[in-house]
Amino acid sequence: xxxxxxxxxxxxxxxxxxxxxxxxxxxxxxxxxxxxxxxxxxxxxxxxxxxxxxxxxxxxxxxxxxxxxxxxxxxxxxxxxxxxxxxxxxxxxxxxxxxxxxxxxxxxxxxxxxxxxxxxxxxxxxxxxxxxxxxxxxxxxxxxxxxxxxxxxxxxxxxxxxxxxxxxxxxxxxxxxxxxxxxxxxxxxxxxxxxxxxxxxxxxxxxxxxxxxxxxxxxxxxxxxxxxxxxxxxxxxxxxxxxxxxxxxxxxxxxxxxxxxxxxxxxxxxxxxxxxxxxxxxxxxxxxxxxxxxxxxxxxxxxxxxxxxxxxxxxxxxxxxxxxxxxxxxxxxxxxxxxxxxxxxxxxxxxxxxxxxxxxxxxxxxxxxxxxxxxxxxxxxxxxxxxxxxxxxxxxxxxxxxxxxxxxxxxxxxxxxxxxxxxxxxxxxxxxxxxxxxxxxxxxxxxxxxxxxxxxxxxxxxxxxxxxxxxxxxxxxxxxxxxxxxxxxxxxxxxxxxxxxxxxxxxxxxxxxxxxxxxxxxxxxxxxxxxxxxxxxxxxxxxxxxxxxx
Length: 550
Fold this sequence. Notes:
The chain is of the alpha/beta class. It has 21 helices and 14 strands. The protein is globular, with a radius of gyration of 26 Å.
């Protein structure tokens, strides 16, 4: 890793160091900024504040309490089948297990977690599902004594996840559209599996053209550049300024029009975006639908919607262009559960991925039949999403594929908590936390935060060059560009104020933009961060004035 010693002094050597650091991923650069900020905090009265990574500082309590209660109950079920003093019990018995769970919940009705388990059981049985089946999946799953079966996702986990996605990604969608869901080890695993299976199934080949809707989460930028992919990447950019000189972080029509070219085989987006944290406008959604329906019907779409729950009435492309879309959703942020590694990949049951595979040249179909031939006597009939499951274990280990069953039970309970929260109390509370921190950050910068219902606010991307111009004019903005590399701002911020933020250009955002996470610190801390941002901008201006007076 590059040496960051004395990198804030303006000399030729420090400029070289900064340029080398600019080549790092923002998440790797963060480690160097942390060193500077911690050193500043040790040797001054400054408080070390790290808003560089979006790991939330909250946890959803109800689904965790329910999980641990289910674990305790499941152990009583195991001990019914044998309880050797050495510490070995049997495995749960499905016969009559639903009634035993009901009785356990009655006996422990006042304990944390009981209400959510009972509510979830009632939610499922009221729709005609069998209580013994449900309770057995939960007992067996939370104990983790079996391989995941089905390997793609457990039956009742999928039912709850399906309903949760319809509610949160589809704004309470009530139609007949159904998705096949693959439970994965977090959103990052989902990304890896998707790119891998698209290539393995000849839906993307090395050198093919794909589009990224930028700014975007850095791995979407880095993965296509790996040697095994080497895709030709074009950017669909939301970086343009409006006429009033502010960002609205929406995509001009001219950018979306790039996707009409059939050479563009895939487009990836994070919605709401990371780092700007804005959801797509309905106008953009309608234009994307027109692109697919009238110009590029085989356009594959990967939409990563982890922040959708932080926007009112969120609408994912999975419900707008279902046949073309692969949805990635992670439970990590909304529930404060990054350590749980819980996510889903959802593909509509009627989709272009299966159709495109069926339309491949005979030689490529023969290649795929060989690849998946050990899984079925009719490998051509295997769905794309099930191929993804197999590819996640290099096909040969398909029988051991799947997210661990305890993780899937926790996922079920998180989904159920929101399905039972008909007044959206949890969602309202989460959104209020984020928006309060966002307002605190901008309040002390002195910058103007434009009202916008499309803003999620989980992150805030601040284009320093916008405010350089608005506060101090075009000459000062030119001075910054000519005398500093953009990364200098986050380096100074860490070195002089002990605050860690990420550089926005690492997400293909504007060169002089910075990203702050609103999830991992308290509201009072964002007041300090806003003050620190303005302090650094004012220091640049003071240097500029001193230079002009010479």
